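can u do me a favor
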């Protein structure tokens, strides 16, 4: 088995290789002065089962992913499993207005081209997997969140009903409280986010979401939970897409962490073990 880590997922690929007890395949990556990518695989892949890991954010990493696949495809390999830790464009999973691209479909069709299998993590909408014609599966980061928050929180919350399963799984593993927040618009300026059933008074809570982008969702949830008596509010996301001013907005949060599906300084949680389980 060979593991190739694209430049956007070197950290995760390295962790995975370590968990599986194999060396990362030697590769070269650089950018030309105009920004175009150059990739080279420096080892023979003949007859190998190859795992390629490259996240799809921001867009330049998608092109790089295609270059890695092209290079891999030139070897007589056994099979290629492409792992896109963050599968981008999953929020545009249909044409909301006539004439729009179905971006998630466009990405799925191209990513699967040279792949025998595709694996994603906490894809925004699991129905996007139906756009693949090859085996495609989605792994959950819930157990990774549970490992990280063990002993640190009394409750795990989802900021909305859509993410409830992810948060509930983590709380089940930890044996702590769980709930999701319900959003109610009070007037033009005020939106309330209140846990459906749980009182957070005196509790240390973690809000777990798939994506933090502008930070608007977590900022509002944190403010409201503190007003409702939570003593600590931590925020975690699978995919830290972090817009430039996001951390200024999250000043109220006691901690903001992300997994390594999109690598940044906030990537304190690794999903390498969850991926390794597939190959174990
Ligand atoms: C929404 O459906 C997602 O699960 C996230 O809650 C959302 O993408 C977060 O975005 P932002 O950080 O911009 O509020």
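np, heres the sequence
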């Amino acid at each position: 088995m060979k593991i190739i880590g694209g430049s956007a997922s070197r950290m995760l690929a390295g962790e995975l290789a370590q968990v599986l007890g194999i060396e990362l395949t030697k590769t070269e990556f650089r950018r030309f002065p105009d920004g175009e990518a150059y990739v080279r695989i420096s080892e023979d892949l003949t007859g190998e089962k190859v795992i390629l890991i490259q996240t799809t954010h921001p867009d330049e990493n998608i092109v790089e992913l295609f270059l890695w696949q092209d290079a891999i495809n030139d070897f007589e390999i056994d099979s290629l499993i492409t792992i896109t830790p963050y599968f981008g464009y999953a929020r545009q999973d249909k044409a909301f207005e006539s004439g729009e691209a179905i971006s998630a479909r466009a990405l799925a069709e191209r990513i699967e081209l040279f792949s025998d299998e595709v694996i994603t993590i906490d894809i925004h909408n699991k129905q996007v997997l139906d756009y693949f014609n090859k085996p495609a599966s989605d792994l959950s980061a819930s157990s990774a969140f549970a490992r990280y928050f063990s002993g640190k929180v009394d409750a795990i919350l989802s900021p909305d009903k859509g993410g409830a399963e992810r948060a509930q799984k983590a709380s089940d593993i930890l044996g702590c409280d769980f709930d999701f927040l319900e959003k109610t618009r009070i007037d033009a300026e005020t939106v309330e986010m209140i846990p459906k059933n749980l009182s957070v008074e005196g509790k240390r809570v973690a809000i777990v979401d798939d994506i933090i982008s502008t930070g608007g969702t977590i900022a509002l949830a944190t403010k409201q939970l503190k007003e409702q008596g939570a003593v600590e509010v931590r925020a975690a996301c699978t995919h830290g897409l972090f817009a430039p001013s996001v951390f200024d907005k999250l000043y109220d949060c006691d901690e903001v962490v992300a997994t390594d599906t999109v690598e940044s300084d906030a990537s304190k949680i690794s999903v390498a073990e969850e991926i390794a389980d597939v190959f174990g």
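Residues 159, 162-163, 209-217 surround ribose-5-phosphate (CB under 6 Å). hope that helps!!
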